[in-house]
Amino acid sequence: MDANRLAFRQWKLVPRMLRPTTHRDLTIELFGEKYENPILMAPIGVQYNPFSTRTQKQGSQKSVQKLASHIELETGLDSPDPVFGKNFKENFNAEPEDKITEASAEWIGDVFSGAVHSWGKIALLKKHWDGPIVLKGIRRQLDGAVGSLDMLPEIVEAVGNKLTVIFDSGIRTGVDIIKALSLGAKAVFVGKPAIYGLAVAGKQGAKQVLQGILADVDQSM
């Protein structure tokens, strides 16, 4: 996280004054669909929410899941790790939140399974899936790694028009988004800020955080 935030601080904007700014177009086209702005909700995996049952009874579970993706996917695709929960229930005849100790042990074995992944598995996935594939890199476990924003221009140049680049890592402000887009990203994922808002004030809190970031983008432009 420190490397990501440092990268954003090191890249500077050069203001252009006395330019017409009355028309600001934030729309983007992604996978053949047009969207009003380039802000997407980052997938946040393996969350434990002791209030999920109550939330679902109150009828807001669908709203929370929809909030988990700016592009409206099927609800099941937005939920946190449904496969793990299903397998755990089959093996232990209980929900993960009802047996925290056992679920924690199972989760560690599931995440740190020792399985080796390679680019060859992406080819296998493409062979059996003709739709778009969004491949999200996760390398926060490696201390001392280069900031994601520092690598963005190099990645954009390498893939050219063969791939759609969506930036994710360290987005906190509207100016951060402008920097990522200026360096070649087609859209950006926002994760922790929205989740912080969700933790403080539920659906409305997450909504206000995203609205604030979007307003910052528009105002900065």
From TrEMBL:
UniProt feature coiled coil, ranges: none
GO molecular function: oxidoreductase activity
Family matches, as Gene3D superfamilies: Aldolase class I
Domain FMN hydroxy acid dehydrogenase: 1-221
InterPro entries: Aldolase_TIM, FMN-dep_DH, FMN_HAD
Keywords: Oxidoreductase
Protein name: Related to L-lactate dehydrogenase
